[in-house]
Structure formats: C-alpha cells, structure tokens
Automatic annotation (TrEMBL):
GO MF entry, a single one: hydrolase activity
All copies of domain AB hydrolase-1, residue ranges: 26-254
Name of the protein in its database record: Alpha/beta hydrolase
Keywords carried by this UniProt record: Hydrolase
Pfam families: Abhydrolase_6 (PF12697)
Amino acid sequence: MLQTLHRSKTPSGAAYIDQGQGRETLVLIHGVGMRIEAWGPQIARFSKDHRVIAVDLPGHGFSAPLDALPEMPHFVAWFARLIDELGLEAVNVAGHSMGALIAAGFAATEPSKLRRVALLNGVYKRTPMARQAVEARADQILSGAFDREAPLERWFSADEKDGEAYHLVHELLQQVDSSGYAAAYRAFATGDAVYLDSWPTVTAPAMFLTGDGDKNSTAEMAEEMAKAAPRGQAVVIKGHRHMVNLTAPQEVSKALADWLTWQTAQ
C-alpha cells in the first residue's frame, strides 16, 4: 500500500513536501507518471542533513495541471515559479527523466538560482529512430490509448519485477491522471532538443547519472553531457535501468551526497 506523504501547496497550485533542515536546499523533480513518493529513499537520506523539497509535476499527484501548452519551456517556467513562490535562493536541483529535462532547462535559464544540478536518467541528442519512437508514444497517449504497463518493460529488468521498486512504480502508474501524463509526455518527447546546446554555458557543478542498462537514457548520453558541461561528471550505475534511484538507492544516494560536496565556485 502506497504511503502518501503530506503535501503543502504553492499559490499557483504546485504540491510539494518540505522536510529537514540544513545549510543547503535540495530540490527533487520526478519523471513522467511518477510523483514525490518515487524519491522516497533520497528524501529519507538527505532530510537528515539538508532541507529537502520534492514536488509533484503538473497534473501529477496533487499538483494542478499545467496552465500552458505542454512544451518544455513552460514546464521550466513552472518550476522557476515554484522556486520563487517558496522564497528560495540558490538551490541544488536533482531531476529524474522528465525532471532531468526540467532541471537542465532551469540550469540554462536561471543560473543565479542554481548551486548544483544533477540529471538522473536524462536524455540527450536522441537518435532519429529513438525520437520517432518516443513521439509515436506521445501521440498514442494523447489519443487516449495509455498503456500503464508498457513503461515497466522499459524501466525494469526481468529480475527486478518482484522488487519493492517495481511494485511502487506500478502503483504510481496506475494512479496517475491520464491527461497530466499525456501533457508531460508530450513535452518529454520533444523537450530534449530545447536546451541541448546550453551545457557549455552552465558553470554550476553538474552530475549526469544513469544505469548502464537504460536503453533510452544511455550511459553515452550521460558522458556526452558531462563532456559538454564545464564542470560536468558522468556516473554510471552498473546493472540497473531507468528507475535507478529506486533499484540502487544506496549507490545513487552516495553519488548525490558526493555531488553535494562539490565546490560551487572555482
């Protein structure tokens, strides 16, 4: 049974949690179809010594739908508004999948509000074949044909299907609002092209983490982004796929803990 975390809401309707305290703030953005609870291991770990804020994407969990067209810059603007509404100054931002694209856009457009950025299972420069496949899925979802089981086949290996992570993600996919999912997936399908040339201008420490078994957010993508960013570093978790923060929580949390120690000024 899913244990729902207590949320607050911003004036514009974004649902979030705010736990822990510390000198720095860590903000977590989940991926399409998920919600705050998908960050459970990281919330538990980092709220011990940081202020941790995690947010439901628009139309996901308890957040209001996006009040604009489902395009990546509008999701980035939504996130920037959240940061302002919470009265936050420079923050550390970690995003997973769709959340990684939002984090990348935030790094590109709001550098003064960023200390460090981490992209978990982020996409970068999809091949034409991969782009065609993801856009076809977006069109199918928009048509109302939302297969809530299909992502599980891409996100988990066969030997992970009896684990707690699989069952949690399965439950979250069953509960997600179909229109909220469709809007976010449309932005996800086209959003990797929006900020892809921005990494050379991002001077904040940037970590790019993925699982070596993730066929859509590949290790090669993480390494290419790390090379493009002046202070980038790639981390590849062996033996895991797309939901690596849940299937390898200790390894991912260790990588994030190391990232949070990187100096923010040279």
